[in-house]
Amino acid sequence: MTDPAAAPAEMNQGGPHHFWRLFTIWAVLSAAADPLFYLLVGPHLPPGDMGSAASGDQFDSNVLFVIAIPVVFAIVIYLLYAVIVWRARPGVPEPVSGPNSHGNFAIQLAWISISTLIVMGLFIFGTIELVTSAGSGGGEGPVAIWTLDSKTPLVVQVIAQQWKFSYRYPSFGGFETDQLVLPNDTAVVFHVTSLDVIHDFWAYQLGVKADANPDYDNIAYTQTQQLGSFEVRCDELCGLWHGAMFDTGAVVSKSAFQSWAASTEARLASATKLLPAFSWTYTPDANGADGGLYPDDKDPYSNVEVYGAQPVKVSQAG
Amino acid sequence: MNRSKRIAVVSALFGVAVALSVFASMAFISSSPEVVDFTTASGQPVDLTIQTVGTIGFGVHPDWVSYLVKSPSGQWLNTTLWKLPANTKVDVTLLQFDSGSPLRNQEVGGVTGVDDAQLNGKSFSLANSNDQAGVGHTFSVPELGVNVPLPGVNPNATNTCGSAPCSLQFVHNTVTFSFNTGAPGMYRWQCFVPCGGGFLYGNGGPMQTVGYMDGFLEVS
């Protein structure tokens, strides 16, 4: 009959060095999987790279995956190794005691240190990504932590209401349309507001998502970098037709955009004359159906001249 | 009452309560406005006659603003679920009996997605809500690109209609237009004017309830 105390002792003394075997398996698989994932899967992670904000989202997801894959491998490989190598065998008593059942200070120090480094590193990484150029604006108003480098971005005002989005183009006479068309390879500033309840403007493939609040000018940025269409959805439960509050936008060539903007400005000229003066926010009437309180002149939240476009005059009366 | 009887009574009452809850829930879930079928004349243009009224005057919400539709048999019905044939021209006659106001968003004052829009017999493509009686409602089917503003009637007129269905003797605007139903599907339609007076931002009540200012075009 085998001595129960002898089995655990054999694991380190007479048998293979399990730690290095585990480490080798883990290192080889991680070293192979990480670049494969980054190169083959990473470019296809949502939301894509149609805009700079989307690219930022995609990069962040890739970083998380590249860090998470070795962690997952470490757990799974150890689990499988333990099940296969250290499983109980007929005639061999279970290794319930002995030196290997005691704590290992070096291993404990290592996993606590590595876990702390990963978590703190991601905390710092996430904070930097949130407030630097990868961010898409956080409704910070005219004193945002990060703003575009470009002095001539396209300014688009997004106006949400139950249950549709409208878009005003102050650089083209301030016309308002339900079509969102953007030029490629261009810095874009979205000024997002609402005429009634809280909505959320989510241009998915552009990586732009900003709350649309009444009386508030929420700013989001992106740099378009790919032709194509993108989905626009409301991402804040806003009433009966919230689920139907979506449309499709398009990133087109600069020349096509100029052509579209010019023709739309001309086509909507008579309607544009009926629009109120361009303002960053518009105050709805909370008491009922009456309109006529559009726009709110009291608190023009942003200074359009900062962005250097050729906008219509923003109402400054108060 | 001994213990077994008490248990029996409590169990019976609990069973009745559960049954009533299930019945009420199923009744609520299965309740829906009537669907009016206009598909009988498939292939031919469909005539759709609808009206808007400021206060419907009957039902569970008599003071709510509402749409009504005239069924193929000529009866006015308080439903906004209409079954239409696919890829078919729909000739709409819309009788607007409600008053209006300046639009919160003038963009919905433009006519889009329809042919031959006329207001009281005159072609129109844009409603200036800051003039005259403003705009009371819109008939909008976003997925079809359809938007038609409905200018309000003179609120000072002496013969305004306050209870549906309204007859032509009351002051009204007649808006006519045509649109194509397109491919089969469920197309939601709604009014984009926040006309739910008395509700927050005008968007509660009839604006949030199918059967009043929202509905579906069941295109098949």
What is the secondary structure topology, with strand pairs?
The complex is a heterodimer of chains A (318) and B (220).
Chain A: H1 6-12, H2 18-41, H3 52-85, H4 105-131, E1 154-161, E2 164-169, E3 175-177, E4 181-183, E5 187-194, E6 199-203, E7 208-212, E8 218-223, E9 228-234, E10 246-252, H5 254-267, H6 269-274
Chain B: H1 3-30, E1 35-37, E2 46-53, E3 66-70, E4 76-77, E5 81-84, E6 89-96, E7 115-119, E8 122-123, E9 135-141, E10 146-151, E11 173-180, E12 185-190, E13 214-219
Parallel strand pairs in B: 1-5, 2-6, 5-13
Antiparallel strand pairs in B: 2-3, 3-4, 6-11, 7-8, 7-11, 9-10, 12-13
Rg calc of chain A: 29 Å
Counted beta strands of chain A: 10
Q: Could you name the CATH topology of the largest domain in chain B?
A: Immunoglobulin-like
**Series of H and E elements of chain B:** HEEEEEEEEEEEEE
**CATH homologous superfamily caption of the largest domain in chain B:** Cupredoxins -  blue copper proteins
Q: Work out the strand percent of chain B.
A: 25-35%
The first-to-last residue Cα distance of chain B is 63 Å
The biggest sheet of chain B amounts to: 7 strands, mixed
CATH fold assignment of the largest domain in chain A: Immunoglobulin-like
In order across it, which strands form the biggest sheet of chain B? 4-3-2-6-11-7-8
Low-pLDDT residue intervals, each spanning 5 or more residues of chain B:
none
Q: Give the mean pLDDT of chain A.
A: 80
The oligomeric state of the chains shown is heterodimer
What does this structure look like?
- The complex is a heterodimer of chains A (318) and B (220).
- Chain A has 318 residues and is of the alpha+beta class.
- Chain A is 35% helix and 18% strand.
- Chain A has six helices and ten strands.
- Chain A has helices at 6-12, 18-41, 52-85, 105-131, 254-267, 269-274, and strands at residues 154-161, 164-169, 175-177, 181-183, 187-194, 199-203, 208-212, 218-223, 228-234, 246-252.
- In chain A, helix 2 runs antiparallel to helix 3 (52-85).
- The longest helix of chain A is centred in the first third of the chain and has 34 residues, at 52-85.
- The N and C termini of chain A lie far apart (95 Å).
- With 220 residues, chain B is mostly beta strands.
- Chain B contains one helix and 13 strands; from the N terminus they run αβββββββββββββ.
- Chain B has one helix spanning 3-30, and strands at residues 35-37, 46-53, 66-70, 76-77, 81-84, 89-96, 115-119, 122-123, 135-141, 146-151, 173-180, 185-190, 214-219.
- Chain B starts with a helix and ends with a strand.
- The model of chain B has no long low-confidence stretch (mean pLDDT 90).
- The chains are: A alpha+beta (318), B mainly beta (220).
- The interface between A and B is medium-sized, with 35 and 34 residues.
